[in-house]
Amino acid sequence: MPLPRRQRVAAYAVIVRDERILLSRLADRISRDELWTLPGGGLDHGEDPRDAVVREIKEETGLDAFVGEQARVYSAHMPHAKRDGGRSDYHALRIVYDAWVPPDAPAPRVLEVDGSTSEAAWHLLSDVLDGTVPTVPMVTQALEDWSPFRMQRVGAYALIRKWDAVLLVRFSEKGFHTGSWSLPGGGLDHGEAPAAALVREVEEECGVTPDVGELLLVHDEHFSGTAPSGRYEDFHAVALVFAATVPDDAVPRVVEVDGTTDTVAWVPVAELTDGSHHVLDVVHEALNAAD
C-alpha cells in the first residue's frame, strides 16, 4: 500500500547578530539527541508566511522580530518519513527569510508550552558551521545561501572648528562604533540636498545651526556589523565632509532623544592623538584636508 501523502509549508528565519545566530532546540519528543534549527514553523491555514514567521519566532524565542522582504524557498521530499507516530510520503516546503531583532532585545526564552522546541539561544556562527553545535540540515543549507544585507548610505558631515578645538559627537549604543567620536552629521533623506541634510543633522545632534561652507573631502568606509535597527549589514558609508561654522556663543547640546549620538563637545585638537578620545579616521582626514 502506498504511504499517505503529506505536504507542509513552513516559514523560518535566519537571525544573525554580532557573529552569532539565533537557533531553537528541538524538543525531546521530536529528537532525543540535541538538535538545533532555525526559529519558525508551519503556516496556519490562510496565514501569510511573513506573519507566520513573526508569530513562530515570538513563540519559540520570546522576541519580536522584523522580517526582510526577500526569502529563499527550499523543497525536501522524504518518501518514507517517520512523523507523528507513523510513516508518510512527506513533502516539506520551507520559506526562509532574513530577519532581525532589536539590539536591546532580552535573552531568548521559549513561550510556547509543549511546542516543538524546548530552548532558544544565540550560537556562534563558527560553531554552527564547523558542527560544534548540532543542527538540522536546513540550517547549514540556509547559511550557505545567506549573506549580510548590503547597505550603502550617503551622508553629509561638518568640520566645525573654534580656536584650537573641533566640534565632535560621540556614538551611543544604538550606532555603529559605539563610544567613538566623529564629526556631526548623518545620512541624506531621499531627494534631500547634502547642505540641507547637514544643517538638519547638526541641529539634531548638536542643537546649533551651522553655516555650510565648501566641500573638503569625500570619505568612504566599508565594514560589517549590527546596525542600530538590529539587522546585520554589509555597510558602505560615503561621507561628504563640508567646512562649516557656528556662532561664537553657540552652546552645543544633544537634541535628538534616543538617537545614535549621546554626547557632543568641543574637543581640543591636541587631544585627538593622545588617546583620551577614540576618534574615527574621517576626523583626521578632514583636518588634514582643511589645512
UniProtKB/TrEMBL annotation:
UniProt key word Hydrolase: yes
Name of this protein: NUDIX domain-containing protein
Family matches, as Pfam families: NUDIX
Organism lineage string: Bacteria, Bacillati, Actinomycetota, Actinomycetes, Propionibacteriales
Protein keywords: Hydrolase
Organism of this sequence: Nocardioides islandensis
Domain Nudix hydrolase: 6-145, 149-291
GO molecular function: hydrolase activity
Family under the similarity heading: Belongs to the Nudix hydrolase family.
